[in-house]
Amino acid sequence: MLLSLPEDLESFIRKQDAPTLAGVLLELAGEHDAVLRRLARLQLTEKPDRLAEHFRKVLARWRRGATEDLDENETRAFGQSLQG
Q1: Domain count, the chain
Q2: CB count, 10 Å around CB of 55?
Q3: CB of 13 within 8 A of CB of 21?
Q4: Which of 29, 55, 59, 70 is 20 to 30 A off residue 6, Cα-Cα?
Q5: For residue 32, which phi and psi values (nearest 5 degrees)?
Q6: What is the pTM of this model?
Q7: Rounded Cα–Cα distance for residues 77 and 68 (Å)
Q8: pLDDT value, residue 9
Q9: Residue 9 lies in a domain
């Protein structure tokens, strides 16, 4: 159950320092594959050539009809990254 906070969540998060937020993200990545995959994709944004390669591989799998290995979160994240 989510505890009610005295302020809205966005304001609370924005007040946290980078090491605290990094620790939370690392903990979540260790517990949730979706978070780990999202952080891996985020790392690729610093390497445009690798990011483009990743997108080409995903698109190639889609063209071949091999979408069964893509979960809903990956599909949504991929669409959002294309929009960005």
Answers
A1: 1
A2: 15
A3: yes
A4: 29
A5: -135, 120
A6: 0.52
A7: 16
A8: 87
A9: no
